[in-house]
Design brief:
By secondary structure, the protein is α/β, with parallel strands linked by helices. It contains 11 helices and 15 strands. A hairpin with a 2-residue loop joins strand 1 and strand 2. It starts with a strand and ends with a strand. The chain has 2 domains: about 180 residues, Rossmann fold (3-Layer(aba) Sandwich); about 180 residues, Glutathione S-transferase Yfyf (Class Pi), Chain A, domain 2, CATH 1.20.1050.90. Helix content is about 45%, strand content about 25%. The mean pLDDT is about 95.
């Protein structure tokens, strides 16, 4: 999978910009605040359908305009594909694949697979379980289209079930229909848990090996799936335990007015040398763990999709020491990579043998330096 061309119009601080990319390495240099992360975000939104930053879609449109577009030309399995995103203020986003409008944004997921690595990814280690579930959900959605559908369905189920729980004693009919929503919760939640269990097992396989290589086998990384349902193995066994949990704790759920069990309470436990990395890992260990997770993502997508994803490295090299930089650069060979940075001197030394293009970004304008 290769991104050949990127065309941006009225996107954040970009008025109109275009870049024809190298199939190997692309380096975008610029001072802070010039649009480097905006560029990465435009590629990401053409892949996932939403931003990786906490912004409303109106904020993606240039302040002085009412409409914005991102156009990506890719080559996938020797087939040319054009992805186009149209954003209009206070209107629903439109997505087109080769000129055909999609009914749902979720239909675009999997067309352009990507792995993005930003300084904010430290939240995966340091942040709440929400950050780790988000990390898992985005990854699985790219390789398992049904998973995204299940997530959306599960969100609606928990929302409706919570309303029933809050009003359980005020509306008599709620007592008759709660069992139906329990079935929905268990059946959909079980499928999500099984997808996550399978993915996390693969993540563990790749990431632990990568982490060992980074640390010269001096440290051990361990990754485990935590579910408050219990061990996730056989489908029918998971359903049985799930029902037991909600039946046993039903009065507590009514009291609190929320669903207390299910994949919305899941977490990813990351340990180094048997100690939880979130609390006991050094900055260096945490960065190594994130690097291992990101490189593992790449390998899983390759295994599932049959080709490497696009790798987006947004100003992360400055966060890594020389050993980790070298390890990362060595492992992006054969993967189309887009890197942003403020200074390319060290990066040019590390990538001296790469076929690459270098661009300069200044005030939302892109110019080519090296072809």
């Amino acid at each position: 999978m290769i991104v050949n061309k990127l065309i941006i119009k009225n996107y954040r601080n970009f008025k109109e910009a275009e870049a024809e990319l190298n199939s190997s390495l692309n380096i975008f240099i610029g001072d802070n605040g010039q649009g480097k992360t905006n560029l990465m975000e435009s590629i990401y939104i053409a892949s996932i359908g939403r931003t990786f930053r906490l912004n409303s879609e109106n904020e993606l449109i240039n302040f002085f305009e009412d409409k914005s577009s991102v156009e990506i030309h890719i080559l996938k399995n020797n087939y040319k594909i054009k992805i186009e995103i149209i954003l209009e203020k206070n209107k629903k986003k439109q997505v087109f694949i080769n000129g055909v409008k999609l009914d749902k944004t979720s239909e675009m997921i999997g067309v352009l697979n990507n792995v993005i690595f930003t300084p904010d990814d430290m939240k995966i280690i340091k942040g709440s379980p929400v950050e780790r579930r988000k990390f898992i959900n985005i990854d699985i959605s790219q390789i398992k289209p049904k998973y995204k559908y299940l997530l959306n369905k599960y969100k609606k189920i928990t929302s409706e079930r919570n309303i029933l729980l809050k009003n359980y004693y005020t509306k008599y009919e709620n007592k008759d229909i709660i069992s139906i929503w329990n079935d929905y919760l268990v059946n959909t939640g079980t499928e999500i848990s099984l997808y996550r269990s399978e993915y996390i097992n693969k993540l563990k396989k790749y990431a632990t090996n990568i982490y060992s290589n980074i640390t010269d086998n001096k440290e051990k990384l361990d990754i485990a799936y935590f579910s408050n349902i219990g061990s996730i193995t056989d489908r029918e066994e998971v359903k049985k335990i799930f029902y037991e949990k909600i039946n046993k704790n039903f009065n507590n759920e009514i009291l609190r007015g929320i669903s207390l069990y299910g994949p919305h309470k899941d977490d990813l436990i990351i340990k180094i040398n048997d100690k939880e990395c979130k609390y006991f890992g050094s900055q260096g260990q945490q960065r190594s763990a994130i690097l291992a997770l990101k490189l593992a993502e790449i390998e899983i997508i390759k295994e599932e999709a049959g080709e490497y994803p696009i790798l987006l490295l947004d100003d992360v090299l400055s966060e890594l020491d020389n050993k980790r930089k070298s390890y990362l650069i060595e492992h992006i060979k054969g993967i189309q990579t887009i890197i942003t940075c403020t200074d390319d001197h060290e990066l040019n030394i590390l990538t001296k043998d790469f076929n690459k293009k270098i661009f300069y970004i200044n005030e939302g304008r892109i110019s080519s330096i090296l072809n």
